[in-house]
Design a protein that fits this description.
This protein is of the alpha+beta class and 181 residues long. It folds into two domains: 121 residues, K homology (KH) domain (GMP Synthetase, Chain A, domain 3, 2-Layer Sandwich), CATH 3.30.300; 39 residues. It has four helices and five strands; from the N terminus they run H-E-E-E-H-E-E-H-H. The strands form two sheets. A three-stranded antiparallel beta sheet has the order 1-2-3, with no helix packed on it. Strands 4-5 form a two-stranded antiparallel ribbon. A hairpin with a 5-residue loop joins strand 2 and strand 3.
Length: 181
């Protein structure tokens, strides 16, 4: 990221923060919806209003072909991308020129949860990941490791996707039964 990019991002952030301080209600907004359509088997296409489409499938062991990313991987990609963008924002706000920034999201899950199976204690295994981690690689010339570490930690307390995974909210489920074709 160049100096020009850093200044542009910092200026945009300052404008938005200024507006939010004056009019806090303007901060509340609806997220862009993601529409998923079944394509047969375990294939799904998720679409954004701008026309972007992402095809997903399940691994072969769960009945899919395994030749597309899984929905779980998309969640991990969203986690990593959000963490990266939020850290880039934090660096720009502090005038730090990043030379390298990579965030890898890793996780572990138990497939028994997808089937509602119990563990050895008789408790139902959760289908949610049982472990999540972010591995951040960051470099900025002339910036101490302590300052970069503090910047990473602070930025991740403000990263929406990561926080939503740490502080889950109730998921409203609305069901509409439609006529068959």
């Amino acid at each position: 990221m160049g100096r020009h990019d850093t200044r542009d991002i910092a200026a945009a952030l300052q404008r938005v923060e200024s507006v939010l301080r004056r009019r806090p209600e303007s901060g509340l907004r609806d997220e862009e919806p993601a529409l998923a359509r079944w394509q047969g088997g375990t294939r799904v296409v998720a679409s954004h209003a701008d026309g972007t489409c992402l095809e997903t499938d399940l691994p072969q062991e769960l009945g899919g072909r395994g030749d597309r990313p899984s929905p779980g991987w998309l969640a991990m990609a969203g986690l990593a991308a959000c963490a990266t963008a939020r850290l880039a924002m934090a660096a720009a706000a502090e005038g730090i020129e990043l030379e390298r920034l990579e965030v890898e999201a890793t996780g572990r899950s138990d497939a028994r949860g997808v089937f509602g199976l119990a563990d050895g204690d008789g408790r139902t295994v959760s289908p949610a990941p049982c472990e999540l981690a972010l591995h951040v690689r960051v470099a900025a010339a002339g910036v101490s490791a302590d300052r970069l570490r503090a910047l990473v930690e602070h930025s991740q307390r403000l990263a929406p996707v990561g926080r939503s995974m740490q502080e889950p909210l109730p998921l409203a489920l609305h069901i509409e039964i439609v006529e068959s074709d």
